[in-house]
Amino acid sequence: MRGKFITLEGLDGAGKSTHLARLVALLRQAGKPVVQTREPGGTPLGEKLRGLLLAEPMHLETEALLMFAARREHLDKVILPALERGDWVVCDRFTDASFAYQGGGRGLSVEKLGILENWVQDGLDPDLTLLFDVSTEIALGRVKSMGRELDRFEQEKQEFFERVRAAYLARARANAARFRVIDSGKTLDSINVELEEIVSGVC
Ligand code: TYD
Asked: Diameter of the chain by CA atoms?
């Protein structure tokens, strides 16, 4: 049986990494073989592209094309083989991030993003997408308190993140069947309870 493909999305500083670790642990406790991966990245070539994407200034369309180039490689080398083996794939960001950041944040048209999505994914959508939604004030506050050098996206202004958040929420409304929006401003405990419910619902 084919495994399930779960993606996690949200603003930088939404707490995604903490929730991802918890989700993977819960799925493993439920006996699922889990492959944990991330975008941009997830393959040796994809990780090189990630290095460029997070550091080098580039044209908006170059940025979108490199995101999808890394994704093509990731699908071919990691995601599709894992799903075909029957493993579950938990991916930190996927195409919804391109619609949110390159689309909402930078202003690339939904039409162009849709062409890339159809080309690269060829009908394969996540089975479930968890969107960790939080105000830009909270998210940016967390990013700034991380105490490390910020990447090219994290350095963007609050208005940019307002547009990213709005695009994520629009994408969730347009794909309501696979999205679950989680209020990431809530306590860790209550989010853990929500994750437990989600896992018992999908396993
Ligand atoms: P992120 O998961 O935030 O990495 P980290 O937790 O290590 O900081 O992802 C890196 C950045 O990449 C993030 O700011 C969003 C951006 N991104 C896009 O702009 N488009 C995409 O399609 C993807 C997958 C990520």
From this structure: 45
